[in-house]
Design brief:
Shape: globular
Order of helices and strands: HHEEEHHEEEEEEEEEEEEE
Number of helices: 4
Strand content: 25-35%
Helix content: 10-25%
Largest sheet: 6 strands, antiparallel
Number of strands: 16
Strand order of the largest sheet: 4-9-5-6-7-8
Length: 286
């Protein structure tokens, strides 16, 4: 019995040694790019877009919380949140240092570009004048690259935004009571579309609007369908301007309208800071 017990002990010791010295199996490794973890998961992104993804993923790895209103301080970075009156799960957000969805996007691209280029909420970020390319919901994931911004909601109310990783995955600050996370891209429901961010020089005249709740239109007419309402003074890129339907508002009358390529919409020149016919903006040819 002693010899048998000794043999069993020796066998156990041998198996233990083999286990401790064997190569790690896939199941033992921490999630990485091959496992669908938080990383750049596809080729084709710019160096700046990859840095934005890496910045967001570092916050995921650090276990940072979603917090309503987080990330919208004077400078990009995590801040304590606020209570969302529509969400009981946000009661602890004022105690948590973190980001909401647009706060995370703002911080990621500020670190990537070296400047605070995406300050604002989800709508402001999706309709940014720093648009390099834009994609509709109907186009799906095929044209997207890591670092593209995925927006959810409607043209008048985009309520959520996330960064695409590639391979059908995204990094997001999703909701109160959760930490920043990696998720499968949700293409159904209210997925609105995606935008690729230009971190370099912006081409074309860049101007600012004034007023609050100013609607852009599908055509240069007050009767045309509404596209998006500027919540306040907003930086815009203007492609061209034309004479069309006269508009009377704010004590002014003007028939000049400007086409905004980032919104695929028109706005009366009354609400663009500058003269009635904008200097340096070409006339639309169509």
């Amino acid at each position: 019995m002693l010899r048998r017990t000794g043999a069993i002990g020796a066998l156990i010791a041998l198996l233990t040694a083999l286990f401790l010295t064997r190569p790690a199996l896939a199941a033992d490794r921490l999630p990485g790019p091959a496992d669908g973890g938080c990383a750049v998961l596809a080729p084709g992104a710019t160096a700046a877009a990859e840095r934005a993804v890496e910045t967001a993923c570092a916050q995921v790895a650090a276990g940072v919380w979603y917090t309503w209103g987080g990330g919208h301080g004077a400078q990009p970075g995590p801040t304590y949140g606020k209570v969302d009156p529509t969400d009981p799960a946000s009661e602890h957000d004022p105690e948590r240092l973190g980001f909401d969805c647009s706060g995370l996007v703002r911080y990621a691209y500020a670190r990537a570009a070296g400047a605070d280029i995406l300050d604002g909420d989800a709508s402001a970020q999706y309709y940014t004048h720093r648009t390099a390319a834009r994609f509709t919901a109907a186009e799906g994931l095929a044209p997207l690259r890591p670092g593209d911004l995925l927006a959810y909601g409607t043209s008048a109310d985009l309520h959520h935004i996330a960064l695409y990783l590639g391979a059908g995955r995204m990094v997001e600050a999703r909701q109160s009571g959760t930490r920043l996370m990696v998720s499968d891209v949700r293409l159904g429901g209210d997925y609105f579309g995606a935008v690729r961010v230009n971190t370099g020089t912006v081409e074309g005249p860049v101007l600012r609007t004034w007023g609050t709740g100013v609607w852009t239109k599908a055509q240069p007419s007050v009767r045309a369908a509404r596209v998006y309402a500027f919540p306040g003074s907003t930086t815009i890129r203007v492609a061209c301007q034309k004479h069309a339907e006269p508009v009377t508002a704010e004590g002014y009358t003007n028939d000049a309208w400007s086409y905004l390529p980032d919104y695929r919409a028109w706005v009366t020149n009354i609400y663009i800071q500058g003269p009635a016919w904008l200097d340096g903006v070409p006339t639309c040819t169509a």
